[in-house]
Amino acid sequence: MHERGNVMVFLEHRNGEPADVSLELVCKARELASTLKVGAEAVAIGSGNAYDHEALGRFGCNRVFAVEHPGLAQFTSVPYAKVLTQLITEYEPQIVLFGATTTGRDLAPRVASELQCGLTADCTDLQIGEHKVKRQVYENVLLQIRPAFGGNIVATIVSPESRPSMATVREGVMSKQILDVWGPAQLIEKQVSLSEVDFPTQVLEVVHKEKSVDLKKAKIIVSAGIGAADPQALEAVYELAKTLGGDVGASRPVVDAGIVPKEHQVGQTGTTVRPNLYIACGISGQIQHRAGMMESKRIIAINSDPQAPIFDIAHYGIVGDVKQVIAHMIKAYKDKD
């Protein structure tokens, strides 16, 4: 394990459990670190961190810096940024990763500004590669990949002279995998000195609102596009999802029209999903939507347009009226019982 130059992840946690996006990033950090022949590490900031830090080793984390202070029990921007900046300065990681959550999007720019280093937001992929600028060749730089210009292109962004390179990564775009063989992560407890000046704001109350649907954990998703947005078709989509024991998803136009709530949106600006079965009903399949569901294990597309782009990635394609096709699917499923 290297003392310097590792790949670091800011670890979000709540109620004694690390956030899924943080575990996804630890797995990605392990992959990047392996290519760079360095270590993967995480930083957990808070108070009363009760979860098993050493168990992060099963995701490939080599060591965890645990910072505890009574004033850090709830996330507030200024002290968290100060603590993380101090740790980065001390241990000099070459890459620092954050989840593209409300916390990560608040914290990462503050740290990047303080360190005067590069930051790319909302990445959907990260790779290690080579970058050429005229006669200058930079090797083993972080390639930060994200959609740009409304999702019409995929851009690769590099900051080869930045130390560290920093990125926020969208939830669900990295896979979370436990190692077959692993050892406990090394726990390093760090002490910090914070004064009243470091706490310009105070959290008076924390209200947690549970989501009505968690598409990231869904095994079966039936999604509605504009081609299935009329009342009868949408009712059929909900009925199919209920019959299969799945959840309802939707494309952005359906959500923007106020037909389906935002938490059901799948795609670049919604949730990235990897269910066992994804049924796209009346969805044309623009790149913004495909980016959020193309890694589903099985994709069934139903569309009246045989040229719809969704058929390019579907394992099974059905050309026809959405309402009629869904009705046949429901009947076939019930008849088999």
Can you characterise this structure?
This protein is an alpha/beta fold. It has two domains: 7-198, 3-Layer(aba) Sandwich (Rossmann fold), CATH 3.40.50.620; 215-335, 3-Layer(aba) Sandwich (Rossmann fold). The chain contains seven helices and 17 strands. The strands form four sheets. It has a seven-stranded parallel beta sheet. The longest helix has 17 residues, at 20-36. The mean pLDDT is 91.
Summarize the entry for a quick read.
It contains seven helices and 17 strands. It has helices at 20-36, 77-91, 102-115, 231-244, 252-256, 287-290, 322-335, and strands spanning 7-11, 13-14, 17-18, 40-46, 63-68, 95-99, 119-123, 125-133, 136-148, 153-157, 165-169, 186-190, 220-224, 247-250, 277-281, 299-303, 316-319. It has a seven-stranded parallel sheet. A five-stranded parallel sheet has the order 14-13-15-16-17. Strands 8-9-10 form a three-stranded antiparallel sheet.
